[in-house]
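Open question from group meeting: does this chain pack into something compact, or does most of it stay loose? Before anyone orders reagents, we agreed to write out a predicted structure and look at it together. Recording both the input and the output here so the notebook holds the full record.
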Amino acid sequence: MHPYLKLIRPINCFMGCLGVFIGAVVGVGLSVTRYLQDITLEMFIVFIFMAGANSLNDYYDRKTDKINHPDRPIPSGKIKPGTALHFGVGALGLSVILGYFINFTSFFIVCNATLLIFLYELEYKNKGLIGNLIISVLVALIFIYGGAVVLSYKLNIFLAVMAFFATLGREIVKDIQDIKGDVDRFTLPKKIGVPQAGFIAAVMVIIAICISPLPFFSSAFSLLNFDHAVGYQYLIFVLIADLVFINSIATIKINPGEASRLLKIGMAVALIAFLIGAIF
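Structure tokens returned:
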């Protein structure tokens, strides 16, 4: 892979773009076709935002990557640290400027997400739980951002909150998995111990599970005035996601790496559930 492609991690960037599109569809259903131009611009903004964030991540991790990831572009000498820094700052700045041309909400979200990225890299990356919280907020914001372009947020809030708790649980599980190698990070498992951190991760996932059926019941019983309803198709797929989440909880203590993988799968199935619920 070309060094610059390896630096920006295009697969992750495309996943972010997909999250924006799903967020827009969740917001207005099939009416999303009326907003394709702005959605395309938003997806491009998220792509360059994530590319910039990944570049900054490699820049600030360049010393530890000499040991942990010597094949990455900066420690391998294929890209100079200053180049990665300038690219990262430039890409984030461009995403903020382009966000201005969609609407104020989009601009506001991009500005705050950029601030969170710098706070994470400069201050909180190595401080455990607060770093996990920032990453979880950034993941949740992707779906709110998708709703921003179509100016519809009610159903997106459920998706964002669910994504926040599932991501937070997974981030803690990943810290449990990496506890031996995290010599310079004060992660939650290192502070309170693996069993206690595993319990907290499980609670976060359980909260996500409890949130998951609410869009269906809120829609079915008219508890909230959604722009469009979600039917039983959503409930079927989200229950599949919940089963995967439950399986991940049972696996945290035995195999945190497998638990992390299952959480990722569960989140993907949950996205499919929201997408199908929004369409049908």
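Observations to bring back to the group:
The domain at 153-280 is CATH 1.20.120 (Four Helix Bundle (Hemerythrin (Met), subunit A)).
The chain has 13 helices and no strands.
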